[in-house]
Design a protein that fits this description.
With 172 residues, the chain is an alpha+beta fold. Helix content is 62%, strand content 11%. It has four helices and four strands. It has a four-stranded antiparallel β-sheet with strand order 1-2-3-4. α1 packs across α3, α2 runs antiparallel to α3 and α3 runs antiparallel to α4. It is globular and about 60 Å long. The two termini are 34 Å apart.
Length: 172
């Protein structure tokens, strides 16, 4: 069956709708939380709502000019370029992901939201990333980092589930 141009455009938007429904809230929530931290805490200031929480985690206003653990802090433009490449790859590849592969689709949405929140908006407009979540005495991170990590976990879990399903189908 040959599709007309308007039907094809509609199908593309329907396919991208899932990606946007996942990525946009991630970006919005990430940016709002960073805005709140930047406007309510001085740089490196810590906030703990209750003293007993301090040993588990705290909010710390942190400026990260590098990657994880502040590595490569002198290469802001490299992170912007890598983020742009990541966005282009996800946007290009997403419509080709089968509709039934929801884990892969979800992971791409989470990764896109995290990439845009950290490596595009923060780095392009601020020149650094605002981090603020510190769990225990681990490195400081933010919600875009959580989204990226969750996207990778969902991607790996989906892949492993698919592999397990394929192996069981081969045995039958």
């Amino acid at each position: 069956m040959i599709e007309d141009g308007s039907q094809t455009k509609t199908n593309i938007w329907v396919k991208y709708c899932f990606l946007l429904v996942v990525a946009i809230p991630v970006v919005i929530i990430d940016q709002i939380t960073k805005f709140i931290v930047r406007n309510n805490l001085e740089l490196e200031e810590t906030w703990v709502p209750w003293p007993w929480v301090d040993r588990f985690g705290r909010i710390v206003h942190w400026k990260n000019e590098g990657s994880a653990f502040n590595l490569l802090s002198w290469n802001n433009w490299v992170f912007v370029l890598l983020a742009l490449i990541g966005v282009v790859v996800i946007v290009y590849y997403f419509p080709r992901i089968p509709q039934h592969d929801w884990t892969f689709r979800l992971s791409m949405g989470l990764l896109l939201g995290g990439i845009i929140g950290n490596n595009l908006i923060d780095r392009m407009f601020l020149g650094y990333v605002t981090d603020f979540i510190m769990v225990g005495y681990f490195d400081v991170f933010n919600l875009a980092d959580v989204s990226n990590f969750a996207g990778l976990i969902v991607l790996v879990a989906g892949y492993l589930a698919e592999e397990r399903k394929n192996k069981s189908m081969k045995k039958e």
